[in-house]
Amino acid sequence: MSSFDGLFSLVQSLLGQPAAHWLREHVDVPEGLLDFSWSEQALHRVWLAEALNLCLLHKLVDAVPDGRRYVEEQARHGRKVVFDHGALRTVDWPDNGELPRGRQAFARLLEPLGFTDVRTYPLTRLNMTGWGYRQMDLPEDIAQFFVSELHPGRFSESFQQAVSRVVSSSLDPLEAQHLNILKRLQLTRHCSLDEAQTVLPALYRAFGRQHGVVLETDYQCLLKESAEMAWIATEGNSFNHLTDRVQDLTACVAHQHDLQRPMKDSIEVSASGRVLQTAYRACTVSRGLIDAAGHYREHAVPGSFVEFIQRKVDPDTGRIDLNFDSSNAQGIFKMTDSKA
């Protein structure tokens, strides 16, 4: 079995054969992975990082029909999408149920996989902070994570009380056996194939909603002050978006407009001029909320979306610019604002 066969076998152990085959046909997998060990006894962390990223990409395209259609259109034109980064939101709040506070719930699993928070991004307009987590073995090839924290302490007291009611019921998807595997992985950079198959489902579950059903009154309270916290209330720590790295964003956008796809109105350009981003508007999903009479009712709310990014070469390094940009990020975040 080749290393790439092994990678997709690991993905298949979680998602099943049809999904693993779909990913193999539609998503670019970096050749640089072949420089790292793959064996049943000693699996390098890059393989587990890539397997997780592939599984999370599939989870998002399952949730975002426009995203699946886009990826499959690219394949019909002979191109596999290049997974640049995924984004998720957390809450910087002490009353977070069983979960560690804010981004620490994800630092504990990303760091053993070789990801390091290389830069902090103030998201001042949103009362949030973002961190770029980059995989240090293959930084240009393995998709990054943009992890943001919302700071409820900067909002009203009623907002903070609603946040507590929402997130205090959170359960921890990582059990002791998973944390032990991650600890060994962090120390040695390797785990066995059996350990990878054991921990991957728990890592996958971490990117979801860990708290219970939300009261409609709490949802509306949160929405008045923060569309981002309202989104977290229904979607939790799911991927907010995933991003395809394209060579020519202007041409990509023009083509998507020709197809009458639900695109953002403009392209966000970083202060350096080297990072250009835009996105589809968020899909609409149906989520249950509990009304004042205690009845569970479905509501149409913003879900996740697909983003597009072009990274130009940094002349100082001769490499593509892997950074993010605070202004860009805040513009992209508006895709899930139901009031926008």
UniProtKB/TrEMBL annotation:
EC id: 1.13.11.93
Superkingdom of origin organism: Bacteria
Swiss-Prot/TrEMBL cofactor(s): Fe(2+)
Molecular functions (GO terms): dioxygenase activity
InterPro entries in UniProt: HGLS
Pfam families: HGLS
Alphabetic keyword roster: Dioxygenase, Iron, Oxidoreductase
Family: Belongs to the 2-oxoadipate dioxygenase/decarboxylase family.
Protein name as it appears in the record: 2-oxoadipate dioxygenase/decarboxylase
Native species: Pseudomonas taetrolens
